[in-house]
Structures are given as C-alpha cells and as structure tokens.
Amino acid sequence: MRELNADDARRGVLGGGVFACGGGGWRRHGELMGHLATSVGRPILATVDELPADAWVATVTAIGAPAAKNWEIRPVDYVHALQKLIDVCEHPIAAVMTAQNGYSTTHNGWMQSAVLGVPVLDAAGDIRAHPTGKLGSMSLTSRLGYVSTQVVSGGNRELHGHFLSVNQGSVQTCDDVLRDISVRTGGFIASARNPVELSWVKQHAALGAISLALDLGHAMESAAEKASNGARGEAVVQAVCDTIGAREVSRGPLHHEVELVTKGGWDHGTFRIGDCTVPYLNEYMAVERDGERVASYPDTIVVLRAEDGFPVAVEEARAGMDVVLLVADSTTLPLSTSAVDPVAVGECEELMGMEFLRHLPTERGVAA
Q1: Is residue 347 assigned to a domain?
Q2: Distance between CA 124 and CA 116 in Å, rounded?
Q3: Taking Cα atoms as reference points, which of 127, 153, 136 lies closest to residue 196?
Q4: Containing domain of residue 231, as a range?
Q5: Helices 75-88 & 27-40 angle (0-180, nearest 10)
Q6: Residue 9 — φ and ψ, nearest 5°?
Q7: What angle separates helix 6-19 from helix 209-226, to the nearest 10 degrees?
Q8: Which of 102, 120, 217, 218 could lock 20 by a disulfide, CB 3.0 to 4.6 Å apart?
C-alpha cells in the first residue's frame, strides 16, 4: 500500500483526462477533489493482493452528464453516500474503487479514504470513462442472483435541496433509476454502489488502472517540462503514445459535425477532426472515416490540444480548436469484463443508433 500525495493528485487529472475520453467528470472538480483529499487526510492506494481474500469492495463514482448546466457535487456527498452504503450493507466494506478513470473520476474514493480510512483499490470498473453505470459494473448485470445496493447523495441544493436515496434491485434497474435521479437533482450526483467480493473484482475489473493513469500523468508532466514552449504539445502527444501504446489517426481544427445536446442524462453530439468524425455519448465512443469504423468503444479515444497536449473534454471543446486525435486499442490495456458486456454495450447501441457489439474485442488481453 502507498500513500497518495499532492503530486499524485495533479498527475491523476492529467492521466485521468486522457482516459476520460472527453467525459469522466471535470478538470476543475478533479483538481479540487485531489487537492482536498491529499490535504485533509492520507488516502491510501492498495493492490488487490494487499487486501484480505474475503474482503468486500464497493464502487464509488458520480452519475450524470458533464455538460449539464446546474450540476452540483460537494466533497461531503461522496463521503455521505459511502457512509450510508456501509450502514445498509450486510458485509463490511474493506475498500473502494472507481467505476472508471477520468479528469475527476480517477480520484473517486480518495476523499472517502482520507476521511473514513478505507483504502482505494488500484482497479477500475473500466480503464476509460464510459456513459452508463452498467459499463463499469464488472458484469454484475448478468451475475445470477446478485442484488445491487446503490446509494446516491447530493444534488443542486439551491434548486432541489439535498437528496439521498438507497436503491436495491438489479444493476440494470438501479442504474436507470439513478440516471433519472441525476437529471432531476441538477445533472450530477455522488454514488456508492455494487458491494461485491474481492474475488469477483480480481476476475472482472481493470486491474492497475489507477497506477496507469498516475504514471501517464507523470510522463505527460515530464515531457512538457523538458520541451521548449513551441514543442511542448508534440512532446506530450508523444508521451501519451509511448505510455499507453496510442497512435495518431487525425489532426487539425475541431468542428461540430452534430451540435452538443444534453438530454436524458447524457451529452450527445459528434465532432469532426480532419477526415474523421467522433460521435460521443458523454464520452468519445467511436472514430469513423469515410463510413468505416477506425476505432470503437472500449478503445481509448483521445482528443488532445495541439498547443500543449492537454486532453479536451466534450464540454470544453470549441469550434476551430487545433487538436490531435489518438486511439489506443482496448486489448493493449487492462480491460474489464463490463467493457465487453453485451447488456451494457447493447444499451449504447440503442442510445446512439450505431453498432458497437460487432466491433467488440474477442479477447481481454492483459486484463485476463
């Protein structure tokens, strides 16, 4: 186990921002959460081998659309949601883990660890960010007899007051209900959910996901520091490619092929970068060129600013921005079972009206 510090918090925003794939929370929220967690306490990162074999793990995250106009999450909301889950869960929670990497979601669990003393597991429900809770649920959608417990806390206080809800049922139904709650309470809400045995996590999660994001952030920082001002962007782009095995597929000014619309708890739209289009559902979900699929979820799809190599979020993208489009194949990175779960991925097909299932990898690669 190791203590997470301010350097880790800073690097988590950078590396997590790459794996955010345009969603994954917000840069400013990630900076706030990482700074607070490493200032008020001592968050601890643990590997799956450093926990007791009979340990139970809960997933902590936030739910909603990053471009929602009235979202509000307070740091205490994350702690409150976990405390309530601990109260109602029949098994002691020995560790927490994030559902995904992202600008702020790489830091999921750090505040809870700092305040409550529970370690953060070096694992994720998905190496990259994704639009639905089902995609980070480690295939619990199809686990026979599994009853999910999901707690949400928070909301926009001025508009809706504080909201707390405890939900039990199938992963699919609870996820749909929590998505609706996020919409009704301002756009985003903190969650603690899906307590499960460590043995299940070992089999189904993307192991080492947090360390990989921190290492990537470190590599990006180092590249930027060593490069001259004019070469900084290219140096950071190369550091991302070298660290996660990404390749460049296009570059040039970003355009809105389909304008962003927030509806149903998701951000919908499509970017055009050079000769490629990038449709998104909160996160970048595919890359297409001349009607052919170049990359598809769960590949890591990254848009970086050409000037400095910083990851571009959907909510921050502006027409005319000079950007670089990268793709890292999913089988070269830790891949969770939920990232190839036909139930979860099939929902994205319905929401976006495009094929994903037939593009899924047939093997989990390094995550097996």
Answers
A1: no
A2: 20
A3: 136
A4: 220-332
A5: 70
A6: -60, -45
A7: 100
A8: 102
Overall average pLDDT of the 254-274 stretch: 94
pLDDT band at 368 (very low <50, low <70, confident <90, very high): very low
Q: pLDDT by residue (tens digit) across 34-56?
A: 999 999 999 999 999 999 999 99
344 in any annotated domain: no
Is the torsion defined by CA of 249, 253, 256, 262 positive or negative? Answer: positive
Q: Provide the token pair at 67.
A: 């471009």
Q: Is the peptide bond before 298 cis (omega within 30 degrees of 0)?
A: yes
Domain endpoint, select from 209, 242, 265: 209
Residue 244 CA to residue 317 CA, distance in Å, equals 23
* Whether 201 and 318 share a structural domain: no
How many Cβ atoms sit within 10 Å of the Cβ of residue 49?
10
Amino acid identity at 289:
R
- DSSP, collapsed to helix, strand or coil, labels residue 313 as coil
Give the span between the Cα atoms of 98 and 8, in whole angstroms: 16
- For the chain, give me the number of helices (H) and strands (E)? 10, 17
Instruction: State the chain's mean pLDDT as an integer.
Output: 94
pTM of the model: 0.94
Q: 302 and 259, same structural domain?
A: yes
Rounded Cα distance between 161 and 159, Å, is: 6
Residue 28 neighbours by CB distance under 10 Å: 11
Instruction: Judge residue 229's burial from the number of C-beta atoms within 10 Å of its C-beta, 0-12 exposed, 13-18 middle, 19 or more buried.
Output: exposed
pLDDT digits (tens, 9 = 90+) for 272-322: 999 999 999 999 999 999 999 999 999 999 999 999 999 999 999 999 999
pLDDT of residue 25: 83
Q: Please give the full DSSP string across 122-161, using - where no structure is assigned.
A: EEES-SS--SSGGGGSTTGGG-TT--EEEEEEE--HHHH-
For residue 344, how far is the Cα from the chain centroid?
A: 15
Q: How many domains does the chain have?
A: 2
Amino acid symbol at 340:
V
